[in-house]
Amino acid sequence: MNETAILDALQTIHTPALDSFVAAFTWMGNVGQLWIVLGIVLVCIPHTRRLGAAVLIAFGLGTLITSGIIKPLLMRPRPCDINPAIQLIVDRPFGSSFPSGHTTSAFASAFALFFMKNPRAPKALIIVVFILAAFMAFTRLYCYVHYPTDVLAGILVGLFSGFLSAKILSAYNTNHPIKEQ
Fold this sequence. Notes:
The protein is mostly helical and 181 residues long. It has a single domain (44-174), classed as Vanadium-containing Chloroperoxidase, domain 1 (Up-down Bundle), CATH 1.20.144.10. The protein has eight helices and no strands.
């Protein structure tokens, strides 16, 4: 099955209620506001400061890699540009398709939480963030603005960004402990 066939198959499950929900949820990732707010909230809580810092660093790294390096180099057209017959439920996103920036940001945040070795990290939070990240990735396919390989690449860049963020904080914390209560 080719990528366009997968996207076309997803068009068959559209309903007005689901369209509204998906459009609202994917909007929360347009400039990463969902993940930025998550990072800021975690930074403001004394015992999750390092987790919040990891989320914000991972978000920044993922954005830099995806939107600053890969997208401008590859300039892959979006599926909605290739098949304009599909009615979009969101505004056509700016820029190129590969990799998905929404997916990168979501999974960078989730993997940052996962890779941080913080015994006080709420496991439920990590699970919820991974579920939200997976749903964000799905919305990009449902909205016909990314191919499945765009989303897969976003997950991989998110994995790398989350891992690197945890490593950066670990190295920094060795010499500059962040006081957590």
